[in-house]
Amino acid sequence: MLLPYLEAEHLRQTLPQRPCREAMVQFFSGTSEHFYEVVVDLERASIVSEKDLRGYHSYTDFEEQTCLEQSCLHDDRILKAIVKFDLPEGAVISVEPWTYAPDGVENATQRLTMVSRIPEAICKASRPTLTQATSCVLLISAPKFPILVCCHEVDDGILWKHANCRTQNAVVAKSRVLILQTIITVAKYEYIIAFHFTQAASIRYEVRATGILSTAPIEINEQVPYGKVVAPGVMAPYHQHLFSLRIDPWLDGQKSSFSTSESVPMPLDQDTSPFGVGYRTRGSIIESESARDLDITKARTFRVLNEKSINPMSDRTVGYEIVPSPAQMLLAHPSSFHSRRSEFADHAFWVTRYHDGELFAAGDHTMQSQGGQGIASWIKGERSVGPSGTSISSSRASQCRRRGYSSVAHFRHHPQSTG
């Protein structure tokens, strides 16, 4: 119900029935051990659903975080571990609590609006002076932006080029890319998340990791196969960063299908491939919730289609092709908490139906999960995603098909000298 309403609002059409205004509330009853979650209908002042979350912990606030730090520093197990390090006198131990618990949103009522724009051309007469350009340094206080998304254009080299050997003329077009970018801080790491919108109508999803390197102590002159020494007595372990991008498609409407596409050689044929160099693509519609893997030997890609919408130029179904970056999937042992808490990391591509509450590929309580939460558990029954080109509706939300793909970044650290 929400997506049709937002589309009508955007197009300034007659609005359909407004979706129910609901809010998710998490609370403790008595002690912190009694943790619950309810969804409240704000208009009817009634509870829509409730969930017993005993065994999990909610977000930690600053007061609780301080108590947690002190508890760790007075725990016998931690004190014994500190003794083993044989730290020099005066060394200070800092505790870094992991404050992340259930996933959620901070404020869903806010909307981002562009309020300023950099001019396309600035002449020398109107450019700022050196004093004006550096005046921000003299400010006593800087403006604060609680929600910030960077929107900018960058030069991307050549968009299109051709040299005509007969006319001796060459034509070249410059490529510009619009980038929407934000940064998320998670403990020591900063994740730069950017969407690149190109003039060729493609969308590239980029995640970069920066911040402070995760390290561990190591004996001087010792080498290990699972990490690299980055400073005397300091080792950076090899590790993986895993990302799952969820896509709720709206391609000329809600009625979406998903298919795989592969490039395969054509058999020798006097009419279609007499010299044996032809190849074709073959595709198959994904009929049920499932996971798919990449296959570089067939150049396998994935497509979201709207079979009710036809491209007037090609006379084929409109669609977008999804090309996950080729990467090795999760290396952790299946019995490890890494594996049990990240079900999405076993495959590159997943297709599921929309269901309320199934929002995050690793479940709602990733860092507290004992396993059995997430996208793989949801699709064990292989629920049908409906016939091609149709959508399935429920009373609360549009059951358009959803897809997601996993991306893995491998970190093998290579220190460089700056001398």
UniProtKB/TrEMBL annotation:
What cofactors does the UniProt entry give for this protein?
Answer: Cu cation
Q: Which InterPro entries does the UniProt entry name for this protein?
A: Cu_amine_oxidase, Cu_amine_oxidase_C, Cu_amine_oxidase_C_sf, Cu_amine_oxidase_N-reg
Q: What is its EC number?
A: 1.4.3.-
Q: How is the cofactor bound?
A: Contains 1 topaquinone per subunit.
Is ATP-binding set as a keyword in this record? no
- Low complexity bias located where? 384-398
Show the segment(s) annotated as Disordered. Answer: 380-419
Q: Name one GO biological process term.
A: amine metabolic process
Name the top EC class. oxidoreductase
- According to the entry, every stretch annotated as the Copper amine oxidase catalytic domain falls at 146-385
Q: Which domain of life is it from?
A: Eukaryota
Residue numbers of 2',4',5'-topaquinone PTMs:
Y189
Residue ranges under compositional bias (Basic residues)? 399-419
Keyword set, alphabetical order: Copper, Metal-binding, Oxidoreductase, TPQ
**GO MF entries:** copper ion binding; primary methylamine oxidase activity; quinone binding
Q: Which Pfam family is an annotated match for this chain, by its short name?
A: Cu_amine_oxid
PTM comment: the record says:
Topaquinone (TPQ) is generated by copper-dependent autoxidation of a specific tyrosyl residue.
Signal peptide range: none
Annotated family? Belongs to the copper/topaquinone oxidase family.
- Name of the protein in question: Amine oxidase
